[in-house]
Specification:
Helix content: 25-40%
Number of helices: 9
Mean pLDDT: 86
Strand order of the largest sheet: 3-2-1-4-5
Structural class: alpha/beta
Largest sheet: 5 strands, mixed
Order of helices and strands: EEEHHHEHEHHHHH
Number of strands: 5
Radius of gyration: 17 Å
Strand content: 5-15%
Amino acid sequence: MILKLTRPLVFLDFESTGLDTERDRIVELAFVRLHPDGRREALVRPVNPGLAAMSKGATKVTGIHTNDACGLFGDNGRKPAQPLRKLGDELLAFLGDSDLAGFNQIAYDVPLWLAECRRHGIAFTLDGRRQVDVKILFNACEKTWDRFLMGPRNLSAAVRHYCGRELEGAHSAEADTQATVDVLLAQLQRHPELPRDVAGLHAFCERHRDGNRDEEPAARGTSA
């Protein structure tokens, strides 16, 4: 594998009730753990946001309505949604001491996750964890991108540009997370100037994060 890992790298993605990372709530989450040998493990859970209602914008993007998120119409064959606090131990065990990655997770997913952890008493910390933001890499590496000809630099565009395919199941947390793994590996193939280890990629993202501005806000972090 072109990416050198000394410990697992967990890619995360959340569907939420809106854009406010402090006030909105997670309604679906996906963690994909990439192991040093290239194996992937996925953990996907619907989350009951309690009294928080889905915004119209979030519903339009994700197709999830408030009644769906709260499980009022049954689980439709899926695992029933639970409050995040009841999932805390399972999620912490899956994360372990891993580093983190995602598409726009530094600006969106991680702040949302940290706010939810505080709200639900989940003992998660960023201490000792590095972060790799695939959107920052996209913005930094594709300096000549013309958004009028090629569209906004969102996850769908990244999958098309780097992987040569369309993003299927966009705004499904698992589909977006698996696609983000694919995009990162393809970025490393295309751009030899990028570091090949998580520490180097973390430092690269820190240097370039000020240029990571959303061109078209969406109801969630990946703007797929």
